[in-house]
Amino acid sequence: MALHSAAKGKLISVIGDEDTCVGFLLGGVGEINKNRHSNFMVVDKATPIGEIEECFKRFIKRDDIDIILINQNIAETIRHVIDGHNQPVPAVLEIPSKDHPYDASKDSILRRARGMFNPDDMAA
């Protein structure tokens, strides 16, 4: 099963390390649009932060992408850009990588959600 909404033609994009991208590509996420732009970016130690920022900005402007998956350790390097994105679509989801476990305290979506709700309201 491909991880995109076939009915709407919307995609999931991935910004991640090689293992993460390969895993999602094997799961059927990879696409190249009519302009020959892919919906994924493999990031390694040599990838300039500016290149990651530009890729993220391209993904949020594309109308065929509904979800952006990004390794949390990579998201940390462009946190100011991610925090500036406040639209519901595309949704930005931070995921762990093989070498970096997920830390909920760093996730910008969870931080925003905590700010919207009073913890006492959640106890019911």
TrEMBL record:
Which top-rank group of organisms is this from? Eukaryota
> Whose protein is this, by species?
Brassicogethes aeneus
As for what it does, the entry says:
Subunit of the V1 complex of vacuolar(H+)-ATPase (V-ATPase), a multisubunit enzyme composed of a peripheral complex (V1) that hydrolyzes ATP and a membrane integral complex (V0) that translocates protons. V-ATPase is responsible for acidifying and maintaining the pH of intracellular compartments and in some cell types, is targeted to the plasma membrane, where it is responsible for acidifying the extracellular environment.
Q: Which GO terms describe its cellular component?
A: proton-transporting V-type ATPase, V1 domain
Q: What is this protein called?
A: V-type proton ATPase subunit F
Q: Record keywords: Membrane included?
A: no
Assembly and partners are described as: V-ATPase is a heteromultimeric enzyme made up of two complexes: the ATP-hydrolytic V1 complex and the proton translocation V0 complex. The V1 complex consists of three catalytic AB heterodimers that form a heterohexamer, three peripheral stalks each consisting of EG heterodimers, one central rotor including subunits D and F, and the regulatory subunits C and H. The proton translocation complex V0 consists of the proton transport subunit a, a ring of proteolipid subunits c9c'', rotary subunit d, subunits e and f, and the accessory subunits VhaAC45 and ATP6AP2.
Family, as annotated? Belongs to the V-ATPase F subunit family.
Instruction: Give a yes or no for keyword Transferase in this entry.
Output: no
Q: Which InterPro entries does the record associate with it?
A: ATPase_V1-cplx_f_g_su, ATPase_V1-cplx_fsu_euk, ATPase_V1_fsu_sf
Q: Which UniProt keywords apply?
A: Hydrogen ion transport, Ion transport, Transport
A single GO molecular-function term is: proton-transporting ATPase activity, rotational mechanism
